[in-house]
Amino acid sequence: MPSAPTIKLSNGKEMPLVGFGLWKVDNATCAETVYNAIKTGYRLFDGACDYGNEKEVGQGIKKAMDDGLVKREELFIVSKLWNTFHDKERVKPICKKQLEDYGIDYFDLYVIHFPIALKYVDPSVRYPPSWQNEKGDAIEISKTPLSVTYAAMEELYEEGLIKAIGISNYNTALLLDLQRYAKTMPQCLQIEHHPYLVQQDLLNLCKELKLTITAYSSFGPASFLELEMEKAKNVPLLFDQQDIQAIAKKHNKSAGQVLLRWATQRNIAVIPKSNNPDRLAQNLDVCSFDLEQSEIEKISSLDKGLRFNNPLNYGLPPSVGIFG
């Protein structure tokens, strides 16, 4: 059974370089999908409150543990703090609810999903809350500063409810600001990262800050076509890009494997997903070959600064539309 190599976080914790992303995994098949992914060799599972499938993920994990496929300490389970729970007094209760949904005692990594605070929505009213207020008729911004939310994350870390602190969708300015108030720097930054959106300045700063990077949407527009996003329809799929296809043919690998290796070879973790058993195994096996430096540079040269996961897509005002 193949397994992914690990990368060491700044606090010494080992994190698999290749994981399984749980965004858009259907609730009806989620438990079985997670179980099969564990059977295939996946050990990192990247979830979130907003994905709405955490109970089902927990069911798949429990079945795998009950069947003796894996022990809890062999798994690296990631979840995220949603925007409507940024108020200091909301962070711990929602983290505990999410842990209960998974049926576990701690998260290996817990991530601030977006650097955007929204008005609280009680889980009894709507869960997951999505972007709208309790009435479901508008997006309401909260005045809670990121520094307050981050301090609550540090409390979770100190209490052992989470074993590493993560942030997501932060740009360089937010990272520099975080340095001013963090008692414990985060161990991981999760960002949209693919050849159409390289964000090299942000990568350079993360290296300087000893921040491990996890890339989401590694296949670029492919992740957003089913959302009917016009921007995704107006650029060539990375799978079909001529240079990527040529590199894949040379290494006898799929275009998807080349895209994932482009990231992992630069010590950037990836979290692809697939329901196809063959592709599941292919995605996990992306560290068994090396790209030439010239090939990595050629892929990076496709950069268009093209972001698909922008808050403006969800109805937020332009003032919160710029992030890394």
TrEMBL record:
Residues engaged in binding substrate: 113
Keyword Ribonucleoprotein among record annotations: no
Molecular function terms from GO: oxidoreductase activity
Name of the protein: NAD(P)H-dependent D-xylose reductase (XR)
Cited InterPro entries: AKR, Aldo/ket_reductase_CS, NAD(P)_OxRdtase_dom_sf, NADP_OxRdtase_dom
Lineage: Eukaryota, Fungi, Dikarya, Ascomycota, Pezizomycotina
Active site (catalytic residues): 51
Gene name per UniProt: XYL1
Record site: Lowers pKa of active site Tyr: 80
Pfam families given in the database record: Aldo_ket_red
Oxidoreductase found in the keyword field: yes
